[in-house]
Specification:
The complex is a heterodimer of chains A (201) and B (221). Chain A is built from 5 helices and 8 strands; from the N terminus they run βββαββαααβαββ. With 201 residues, chain A is of the alpha/beta class. In chain A, strand 1 and strand 2 form a beta hairpin. The mean pLDDT of chain B is 91. The chains are: A alpha/beta (201), B mainly alpha (221). Chain A: It comes from Phyllobacterium salinisoli.
């Protein structure tokens, strides 16, 4: 399985922010997208996720068995957590597991993995910023997708959670997954390719 | 899809969900009509079905702007759109509409017979009005979904949604009220407007979600 971007150009509000981007990510590899604010990191992730149309070029998934296109093979972890404050942690995760399908870990196991076992009955709104982020990471674990698109995944996480998340990402790569992460902070992934986006400074 | 229905239904009923707002608004509108119109019982029972329909229409429009906006604000909408390969976006929209209708509009239909008593309506007129509301109000939600999807990225889209949607709901109102009158008056037909009302609902059950999902696809940037 490979994620291939071919001559990709992106625009925001009619302004070109990057052009002719080519990269190939093989199974088990990660791509770190770095660069200053406004360089187009999130735009690139949203284009890969199929939420924005590229100005030109395309992204495709080669050999993604069972997943017909890139979008269907992706977990997208954006700036927001996609969870409802009024529902409990369990209700939130159970919904995404049922909706996304391809169930992997069960909810207790996933919460245990992000170090928040026993919080399943709490309303999501009661949790702290970092805990919310960790629940949102648990969402990646409850259903399976080979490609993880992570936009500032460690924002709000403490040191222990950061290293735990690094372990999770290594595990995902070890199973032949693909990670594309936009970040300012080192994610603790060795041997990741880096794509530095220049932006306009 | 059942999961989506249950989630949206729960959200509507929990704190801040707004399921109660519509029914309180409906109650308020109908409760003040007799004071405004005066104690003319014949007049009240004549305008009863129309007042119930207008009240229900406006109450149904109240919470519509949050149909997709709440999901957009917390990022869920991106994920719902991304799941398009697994769950066709139109079907997702239809399920969301159905959950919204069940949580916020169905209570209006159930409350209508009680409010009909305020309007001195006969049992037959009450039954006919409740039946036409049951059949006609889904169309309002489905039309509203298009407006809600168009205005999803506007921070204060609430009134705009109502303005976009209201003209399109006029046929629903016309046929709903004329069917309700048809049931009580000898000279007017019941079945024809009632069937047209049902047809409008079915028509928008197809057009509404498709149009709304097209609008949502363009809203993700």
């Amino acid at each position: 399985m490979r994620l291939v971007a071919d001559k990709l150009s992106g625009e925001r509000g009619g302004e070109l922010i990057f052009s002719d981007l080519d990269f190939v990510i093989a199974a088990g590899a990660a791509l770190l997208v770095t660069g200053p604010n406004g360089a187009g990191k999130s735009t690139l992730l949203r284009i890969i996720a199929g939420l924005l149309a590229p100005l030109s070029g395309n992204v495709r998934l080669e050999g993604g068995d069972g997943f017909p296109d890139v979008q269907s093979a992706c977990h997208y972890l954006g700036h927001t957590n996609a969870m409802k404050p009024a529902l409990s942690v369990r209700e939130n995760l159970a919904f995404w597991q049922a909706f996304n399908g391809e169930a992997r870990q069960d909810i207790d196991e996933a919460l245990e993995t992000v170090g928040l076992g026993g919080t399943d009955h709490l309303p999501f709104g009661y949790l702290s910023t970092g805990q919310k982020r960790r629940i949102s990471i648990a969402k990646l674990l409850v259903s399976y997708r080979p490609v993880w698109l992570l936009d500032e995944p460690t924002a709000g996480l403490d040191k222990i959670s950061e290293s735990r998340f690094a372990g999770l990402m290594q595990g995902h790569l070890g199973e032949g997954g693909i990670i594309v992460a936009a970040t300012h902070l080192p994610l603790g992934l060795d041997n990741a390719q880096e794509l530095a986006m220049e932006g306009r400074g | 899809m059942t999961a989506l229905f249950i989630r949206d239904f729960r959200l509507a009923l929990r704190a801040g969900g707004g399921a109660l707002v519509g029914i309180l608004f409906f109650l308020a509108v109908i409760a003040v009509v007799p004071f405004g119109v005066g104690p003319d019982l014949a007049l009240l029972s004549r305008i009863g079905p129309a007042m119930l329909w207008i009240g229900a229409l406006l109450a149904a429009l109240l919470g519509l702007d949050r149909l997709f906006q709440a999901d957009r604000d917390d990022g869920s909408l991106d994920l719902l759109v991304m799941a398009a390969d697994r769950h066709m976006l139109g079907v997702t929209v239809l399920v969301k509409c159905f959950a919204h209708w069940t949580a916020t509009v169905l209570p209006l239909v159930l409350a209508a017979p009680m409010l009909g008593l305020f309007m001195n309506m006969t049992p037959l007129a009450i039954g006919a009005t409740a039946l036409t509301l049951l059949v006609g109000t889904p169309a309002i939600t489905l039309i509203g979904a298009v407006g809600a999807a168009l205005a999803v990225s506007l921070p204060r889209g609430g009134l705009l949604v109502s303005v976009i949607v209201l003209p399109l709901t006029i046929p629903v109102l016309i046929f709903g009220v004329s069917a309700a009158y048809g049931a009580t008056t000898e000279s007017a037909p019941f079945l024809a407007p009632f069937l047209i009302l049902a047809a409008i609902t079915l028509f928008f059950a197809v057009i509404g979600p498709l149009a709304a999902s097209a609008a949502l696809k363009f809203s993700t940037d």
